[in-house]
From TrEMBL:
GST C-terminal domain ranges (all copies): 306-421
Keyword Magnesium appears in the UniProt entry: no
Gene3D superfamilies per UniProt: 1.20.1050.10, Glutaredoxin
UniProt xrefs under InterPro entries: Glutathione-S-Trfase_C-like, Glutathione-S-Trfase_C_sf, Glutathione_S-Trfase, Glutathione_S-Trfase_N, GST_omega, GST_Omega/HSP26, Thioredoxin-like_sf
Protein known as: Glutathione transferase
Organism: Macrostomum lignano
Keyword Magnesium found: no
Domain (GST N-terminal) ranges: 30-109
Family named by the database record: Belongs to the GST superfamily. Omega family.
Length: 435
């Protein structure tokens, strides 16, 4: 976009990536503010949604290597991908910010009205014979969430000497062409040449790249990595929601090392949890299945009706996934001083969670159990998560309240079972049954 006029709905954008020692720009109050890094695909997700909905906003670009003190003072995590500031509070994580914008500004919609289609979109469903993902004929949230990486494919072709075979990816390439015509894509696009120049500079470890000052947007490998779970706790999320809502269901437990062929035939990815619907369709991923159950079965609601509160709840879930869970798994496979350091890091991250809890009985300022509580509980049930009570009194009180919840009582495993299973897993001989 270096030669294009700035879109009218972008009220202000810093001309360079601001760093430590540089003053904070004077921003308009009561206006959406996105703290961004132009080359981050996660941040681009939020920019795409802002442009799709043509929401007035201002953008502050931040140097990820030398973050300004004033930015760190605003952000508990220091995270950029993405950091959306609203009047009086802040959201982080690209999917959380995008879902919030959809909830708070539903026009033009990026999710269909049908709960099952919404779940498919969150899972980035197969493209099929429709124009866009999620069995839709107009651009949806899934399309915008996937696009930043697809925009970078030509760069990979140019730099690594390959290209997608048209005969094998005709539908995907057709989708790419349709996406390139979308206004939001045009207004956030960056040329292949600039992408390539940034990657070369990044790989050469040049942290102060001159081209960052140009009006261009792209991706950075410094953004948050994808976390792959080691212990089978994510499926417990879905079971908790099923029990909270008292939905009739049947459970088939699987050996994750030797998965049955009939299960692999039903599941595109072979991952658990997998929720088989009465019509034969399969939903995967713990957050997708849990949110689908909430939208399809409104009784015993786990999300408040207020969009701001829903976003706060999703922010808690994201914080758990990006900060606490990685710190939790660092405890495994280390000993001595490394284990002490890993434990201290876990406690520090839990203190941040405790700050998010505040004086409320449950997360997101609620007096009753909500989706955020159920989505983070499985890790607190594990005995390794018990930490110094003197530093985490509020969090320990929350754990006590959670232990009295019907859904928790009906899905929990004993500490002994957790310990025995973890030992078998660390010995590379997972024992799934007999507890």
């Amino acid at each position: 976009m270096s030669n294009q006029q700035q879109p009218a709905n972008i009220i202000f954008e810093s001309s360079k990536h601001l760093e430590s020692g540089e003053p904070e720009p004077q921003l308009k109050p009561n206006l959406l503010t996105l703290y961004s890094m132009r080359f981050c695909p996660f941040a681009q997700r939020t920019r795409l949604v802002l442009q799709h909905k043509q929401l007035p906003h201002q953008i502050v670009n931040v140097n990820l290597v030398r973050k300004p003190d004033w930015f760190l003072a605003k952000s508990s995590s220091g995270q950029i991908s993405s950091h959306l500031r609203l009047p009086g509070w802040t959201l982080i994580e690209s999917l959380v910010t995008c879902d919030y914008l959809e909830d708070a500004h539903p026009e033009p919609p990026l999710y269909p009205g049908d709960a099952r289609k919404r779940a498919a979109i969150r899972l980035a469903a197969q493209l099929g014979d429709t124009n866009f993902f999620g069995d839709c004929d107009q651009v949806q949230m899934a399309d915008l969430m996937i696009w930043p990486w697809m925009e970078r494919l030509p760069v990979a072709a140019k730099m690594l000497g390959f290209q997608l075979p048209a005969d094998r990816f005709d539908k995907l390439l057709g989708w790419t062409s349709r996406m390139e015509q979308q206004r939001a894509v045009k207004e956030t696009h960056i040329s292949d040449d600039v992408h390539a120049a940034f990657f070369k500079a990044y790989w050469a470890k040049e942290t102060n790249v001159p081209l960052l000052a140009s009006r261009s947007r792209s991706s950075s490998p410094t953004c948050s990595p994808v976390l792959h779970a080691v212990l089978p706790v994510r499926q417990q999320r879905t079971r908790l929601v099923l029990q909270h809502k008292q939905l009739p269901h049947q459970i088939v437990n699987l050996n994750l090392v030797r998965k049955p062929d009939w299960f692999l035939a039903k599941s595109a990815s072979g991952k658990v949890p997998a929720l088989l619907e009465p019509d034969g369709s399969v939903l995967e991923d713990s957050l997708v299945t849990s949110r689908h159950l909430e939208e399809a079965q409104r009784e015993s609601a786990l999300y408040p009706s207020n969009a701001d509160k829903r976003a706060q709840m999703d922010g808690v879930i994201a914080q758990m996934g990006e900060k606490v869970i990685p710190a939790f798994y660092k405890l495994f496979g280390v000993s001595g001083d490394e284990k002490k350091a890993a434990f201290e890091q876990l406690v520090t991250e839990l203190e941040s969670m405790q700050s998010a809890l505040g004086d409320s009985k449950f997360f997101a300022g609620s007096e009753s159990v909500q989706m955020a509580d159920l989505m983070i509980w499985p890790w607190f049930e594990r005995p390794e998560a018990f930490v110094p009570e003197e530093r985490l009194k509020s969090l320990m009180s929350w754990m006590g309240r959670m232990e009295q919840q019907r859904a928790v009582l009906e899905t929990r495993n004993t500490d002994e079972a957790h310990v025995e299973f973890t030992r078998s897993l660390l010995a590379n001989q997972p024992k799934y049954d007999g507890y």
